Amino acid sequence: MRLVAAFIYKLKLLGYTYDEIEIMADASRPTIAEAVKKLNEFKNLTKSDFYDKGKKVENIAEYYHLDIPLTWAILLEGKDGI
Question: Is 11:20 a contact under the CB 8 Å cutoff?
Answer without folding.
Answer: yes
